[in-house]
Amino acid sequence: MSAKSSQGGLSVQSEELRVVILGNTGDYKNKVVKSILDCENLAGVKVGQCTLHQRDRDGRRISVVEAPGWDRSSKQQTPENIREEVERSVSLCPPGPHALLLVIPVKLSEEPSAHEVTAAQTHMQLLSERVWKHTILLFACDDGVEEPQVREHIRGAEKILDKCGGRHYVLQKRSQSNELFMKIDDLVEENRGDFFTTQVYYELIKHKTQEASGEDKLRLRRISLDNPPDLNKDKGDSVEKKKTTESDKPLEDTPKIYMDIRQFVVILMGVVGALIGAVAGAEYGVSGSVTGLVSGIIVGLLIACITKCIYTRMYSRSLKKPTDSRVNSG
Q1: How far is CA 90 from the centre of its chain?
Q2: Which strand (E) or helix (H) includes residue 215?
């Protein structure tokens, strides 16, 4: 089974566990290393100012990097080379540690120090704000330290506890070795096997991810170009629409044609009436012809108007019926 970094790191075997120990000067970090490896006689390898310890435990390969101690008062008083070694420590167990243990000493003869907690916080931020997701605050106690003093140290470290999600462990005896190991495993499980990476490596992975995203977008554009829309289909629709419009056009022009016919009928009826009236009045001379002409025109126009009204009503009804049927069918 493998696990993968949240920043996109390389896969690692679940049987491997990588831990970095950080804290101020003193031998408390070394005590924590012995507890994790369950080994009294350590044989670490010096890598610069850091020490790399490796050992198989319960069928798992454990790598522990012990970073050099910083000044317990402030980051400014820590030498530049030590600060650089603190930053480099997380790269000595590639591709990155699963857990970082920030050690706060609980000494029998000393009260909690606010400066010590502040210095620890500022030194951890050398590794970026992402480090808190993988950090456990570990209180390493002297022999004989009682519970009230431990609680007082925990209260004094509230700012750091808020940053690392409240994860902490109190190490008082070597017999707690298995419990500490389980606490680290809980963190690894909480992060689903993800590990911490340096800022440089994180930015590299982020850049690679963005490049891959850009390639996906380009691939989608190429697919769009390879499968252009069917313009002929739209063209066919336009032709069909045009045909439909043209087929409807005679219907629109029909009333105009019939209107011209009706006007012709009125004129024709007037002329016919005038001729009939003139012929009928000719028996009475010129005055009779004129009177018959006028009367014929009037009678012809009346007949034409009556015929026009009757025809118009009949024609309007014939046009209305198909329209109503189309509306009902829609």
Answers
A1: 31
A2: helix 199-226
The strand pair at 12-13 and 2-3 is best described as: antiparallel
Q: What is the DSSP string of 115-173?
A: HHHHHHHHHHGGG-GGGGGGEEEEEEEPTT--HHHHHHHHHHTHHHHHHTTT-EEEE--
> What top-level class would CATH report for the domain 2-200?
alpha beta
Q: Is the dihedral of CA 115, 116, 120, 123 positive or negative?
A: positive
Using CA atoms, how far residue 107 sits from 27, 161, 196, in Å, is 12, 19, 30
Side-by-side strand order, sheet with 135-141: 45-47, 50-57, 60-66, 16-23, 99-106, 135-141, 168-171
Residue (of 87, 37, 74, 80) closest to 57 by Cα position: 37
Using the CB atoms, write b or e for 85-96: b if 16+ within 10 Å: bbbbbbbbbbbb
Q: How far apart are CA 100 and CA 184, in angstroms?
A: 9
Among 278, 279, 275, 299, which residue's Cα sits nearest to residue 290? 278
Contact in structure between 9 and 18 (CB atoms under 8 Å): no
In eight-state DSSP terms, residue 175 is G
Map out the domains of the chain as residue ranges: 2-200, 250-321
Q: Is the pTM of this model over 0.85?
A: no
The DSSP-derived string for 38-75 is T-SS---EEETTEEEEEEEETTEEEEEEEPPPBPSS-S
Place of tokens 């012929």: 279
More confident residue, 10 or 202: 202
pLDDT digits (tens, 9 = 90+) for 22-67: 999 888 999 999 999 988 888 899 999 999 999 998 889 999 999 9
Q: Is residue 18 within 8 Å of 195, Cβ to Cβ?
A: yes
Residue 153: burial class (beta carbons within 10 Å; 0-12, 13-18, 19+): buried
Q: What single-letter DSSP state applies at residue 174?
A: G
Q: What angle do CA 216, 205, 52 make, to 5 degrees?
A: 155
143: tokens are 């022999």
